[in-house]
Amino acid sequence: MPNFPKLTFFSALFAAALTVHAGTDEKLLAAARAAEPAVISSLREMVAIESGTMDAAGLLRMTDYAEARLVALGLQVERRKTGGSTGDLLLAQAQGSGRRKLMLIAHMDTVYAPGTLASQPIKLEGNRLYGPGIADDKSGIAVVLHALAILRDAGWKDYARLTVLFNGDEESQSAGSGELIAKLAAEHDVVLSYEPAPAKSMAKEEGVLLSAAGIATATIKVKGRSAHSGAAPELGRNALVEAAHQILQTENIAKDIPGAQLNWTVIQSGKVRNQIPDQASVIADVRLNAADAAPRLLAALQAQAAKQHVADTEVTVSLDIGRPPYVGGARTEALAKRAQAIYAELDGRKLMLHPGTGAGTDAGFANRSGKPAVLESLGLAGWGYHARDEYIELDSIVPRLYLSTRLLMELARD
Ligand SMILES: [Zn+2]
Fold first, then answer.
1. Quick one: 228 and 202 in the same domain?
2. What does the pLDDT look like over 80-126, one tens digit per residue?
3. pTM of the full predicted structure?
4. Whether 243 and 306 share a structural domain
5. Any idea which residues carry the catalytic annotation?
């Protein structure tokens, strides 16, 4: 149990935070503490509903659950289809008396196949509550639901518009929800995104996230000419050889483009040994961390495509942007600093600002217009997502509730 000394340390630290401290909103903190058992119950209930990203029946049950919870908060809730992908989307709204428009986002789907719960059941162990999808992203939904319950009980109405969006297709690239997230986010002043934060057992402190990669697919297609590879190879135009040439000459192409990363991962070409192949296609996994990286990368690939090795072949390049990058910039940093100041009210509790991650997030869609200020990773601290033995850290519940409620109150007053 190598974690034990550290966990004891953090528990002790947090116990100290519960004593009176200058600047602390004692009422909110008391409400956050009182809500802790209910958050744990909500987490247990949600993890018990398996909702893997392509599991339509499970997602339906999860959506029913979340819808009922949002309705109980007094929000106007509508359910929307998300095009071809499975997983509906919940859009909940309220009008207040203030001037600021605030939006909260989290996702209901997990990466786990139905039945995972049987081999990885919910279990409590020290400071950890385990369960598939408990951190990513049922912890985000729990924090949103319980933070809003605390604020409702406090009579909070200082916003102009409050929007909550829970999607059910985040783990399949938000294919059906991304555009709506981008559109709605552009109508708001602030978007808070509730993906989990790294566990303290991995990252030392709880934190928030300042940027995340965009994900794209680069494709090169080569058209050649087929011919008998034994009798008349000179009549052919070998698409496979040209594709290999293109791969080699673009292997390091992203090195000169800040915020771009490219790796060729898939190739498809001829089917039989004795025919010069007339077609080939290659696919690269592309990660983008700067707004202008995509057009620059595409232009560079196209310039190379013109430099062919096999005469009379036709080379075309495309770049399909899946999830846009989340590059928050100065306004995200300002939000993160406010979050740090709020954490500091918990007897100096630290909040890490994680500069970036290679994983994608819906904060990328929310941030795309450049209109709202966006902050990511306001869910609970946890680990093991997209892996095994996923867990959240229980001692992050009260601080995260305090952070969200306090931050929303401040943002509404701006
Ligand atoms: Zn997630």
1. no
2. 988 766 789 999 999 999 999 999 999 999 999 999 999 999 999 99
3. 0.83
4. yes
5. 109, 170
